[in-house]
Amino acid sequence: MVKSFITGCSGTSLSQAELNFLKQEDPWGLILFRRNCESAAQVRDLVSSFRDAVGRDNAPVLIDQEGGRVQRLQPPIWHKYPAAQKFGDLYRIDRERGRQAAWLTARLIAYDLKELGITVDCLPLLDAGRPETSDVIGDRAYCENIDAVTDLGRQTAGGLMTGGVLPVMKHIPGHGRAVVDSHLELPVVDTSLEELDGHDFVPFKKLKSLPLAMTAHILFPQIDARQPVTQSKYIIENVIRGRIGFSGCLMSDDISMKALGGSIKERCQASFSAGCDLVLHCNGDLAEMQEVAASSPNLSGTAQLRCNNALSLLKSSITGFDVDAGRAKLCALLGD
Fold this sequence. Notes:
By secondary structure, the chain is an alpha/beta fold. It has one domain: Glycoside hydrolase, family 3, N-terminal domain (TIM Barrel), CATH 3.20.20. It has helices at residues 16-25, 40-54, 84-93, 95-116, 146-162, 193-198, 202-206, 233-243, 264-274, 286-295, 301-312, 323-334, and strands spanning 3-7, 27-32, 61-63, 65-67, 70-71, 120-121, 166-167, 169-172, 212-215, 249-254, 278-280. The protein is globular and about 50 Å long. It starts with a strand and ends with a helix. The relative contact order is 0.14.
């Protein structure tokens, strides 16, 4: 029975202990990081080994391939792509050029991922950048203009899906006002619900039909003074599902991040109790992975329907894309 979590792994191949774990616990998906990606053949083998272990040909394999600083597949093996801010800068100068560059970059990333068997990219990032935004977001954000963030996010999601890769919009309901790194501590954003609803939430509202979203580890004390988004039943029910209207599969951001307190078990339980469909655990620490598995329910009910709906949107056959012409056009759009 598939369990409601996504796991990482420690290296470029699965150890026997990891294989045993995957066979026994059957996580919904696997997420890859730079430590897992050495060569194209090696990544394909790793992906195949994971799917063999869980016995599902369509088991999702995820990655954060944004471009810029957050690019798990690195040159010289893979192509380098610009950070999202580049598209925001282009958009200000020439709206259509920015839109085309965002779509084409995502389409080329999808091509790279599809070649490896990777089916989910944790992109687009819909956090509106601000002058005070923490560097953990920084140039990963398109810009501050909400209409541009929405438009460029839509182009990015479209490019990925056209190429057979599912997008994950993040970090719902918005990470842009955070001034500290949630990997290291809990950001507190003391902004009113009305102001957030009229600005930060807007790109998520406009793209609410996307199949997957990732939560923000942010405390919004004017909405819920006690719990960060990932563990706030009130915010998930009344903001993410309510005001924003997102009905797709909701996964947590990495629960091993220091923004969250308590044991791994307590973090998992709080995230599921709040309404997350899936818990994401990234660091590849087997002891923690086992704790996540023990704390994760079998995938069932509405959560299972949401996950199945997302996977049903994957295109199995992709034709008609000239990758070399696409790369040349992107260089022209970027002015490279």
